[in-house]
Specification:
The chain has 302 residues and is mainly α. 71% of the residues lie in helices and 4% in strands. Strands 1-4 form a two-stranded antiparallel sheet. Strands 2-3 form a two-stranded antiparallel sheet. Helix 1 runs antiparallel to helix 11 and helix 2 packs across helix 7. The termini are close together. It is a multi-pass membrane protein.
């Protein structure tokens, strides 16, 4: 079975089953990462070298194990499909974003704030309906890149070991990659490695969003606005996505009690509930485009 067909099988499994409700491997990995961080960064005293050691201890053994198992006859294909299935979160993205849209459509702002709080790290208690729609739309575009497209990219590049390496690295960034007193030094390696692994996928995602939406506007927003964003990878993704949808994203947001003046992204009106669905549709269409290209590439080289 080609990589493209294995990727298709994994996406279909995700559409059918969604994320595993019990025994998700990332839950066990999260517990392991917590123990490693407690041992190497107790009280926030760890240095960058401790963060590098922690990353290696958490990520390399599972990756090498999967690489070895992939060579076992008869095991490589099912292992690859299951690894990618466990790594992508396309259905989960919809399951988290669509309730926000539905709550806004019902004019249930309290429920919309609660639901969008599952998607974003900013404070949501004071958001109005426009700010909730903006937060959800931004999250769909950015998480589509991190949770779906980047996993597909590393699967295409390096099979099951590649997708395991990426997903575990991305998880460590979510756990350790904070710029605060506890993680400023220890989490540096996790954040930088995740930036490196997402560099190429993020730009391919930005191009995908542009091709499937308002192409000229998306490319213009990417070129002019992405350099202003503090994240080297989220900037291109969100600027191109906002342009593709012809909406305005970004702007001020409150994180952990501090107001952050974020640059504006895109052009057009502020998002409305329907734009959350449009963002999800953009991600889903992009996934099918990538799958088609992977399958076509496999057939070409067959």
């Amino acid at each position: 079975m080609t990589l493209g067909l294995m990727a298709l099988a994994a996406v279909l499994l995700d559409a059918w089953w969604g994320e595993p409700r019990r025994g998700h491997p990332l839950v066990a990995f999260g517990r392991l990462a917590q123990r490693i961080e407690q041992r190497l960064n107790g009280g926030g005293q760890g240095w960058r070298s401790h963060g590098v050691t922690g990353w290696c201890l958490a990520v390399l053994p599972p990756t090498l194990l999967v690489a070895g198992l992939s060579q076992v006859p008869g095991l490589g294909t099912p292992l690859a499909v299951l690894a990618l299935y466990a790594a992508i979160g396309l259905r989960s993205l919809g399951e988290h974003a669509e309730p926000v849209m539905l709550a806004l459509c019902r004019e249930d702002l309290a429920e919309a704030r609660r639901r969008v709080g599952y998607l974003v790290s900013r404070q949501t208690a004071e958001l109005d309906d426009t700010a909730v729609a903006r937060a959800a739309t931004e999250s769909v575009l950015e998480n589509g890149s991190d949770a779906v497209f980047a996993a597909l990219f590393w699967f295409a590049v390096a099979g099951a070991p590649g997708v395991v390496l990426y997903r575990l690295s991305n998880t460590l960034d979510a756990m350790w990659g904070y710029r605060n007193a506890r993680f400023e030094r220890f989490g540096w390696a996790a954040a930088r490695i995740d930036d490196l692994l997402n560099y190429v996928p993020a730009r391919l995602v930005a191009l995908t969003y542009a091709l499937l939406g308002r192409t000229r506007l998306a490319l213009r927003c990417w070129r002019r606005q992405a350099p202003l964003w503090d994240s080297p990878n989220a900037g291109p993704v969100m600027a191109a996505g906002a342009g593709a949808l012809a909406v305005s994203l970004g702007g001020p947001a409150v994180y952990h009690g501090e107001r952050h003046e974020r640059p504006h992204l895109g052009e057009g009106p502020a998002p409305v509930p329907a734009d959350i669905h449009r963002a999800l549709t953009l991600v889903r269409r992009g996934v099918w485009l990538w799958l088609a290209l992977l399958i076509a590439g496999g057939l070409w080289h067959a």
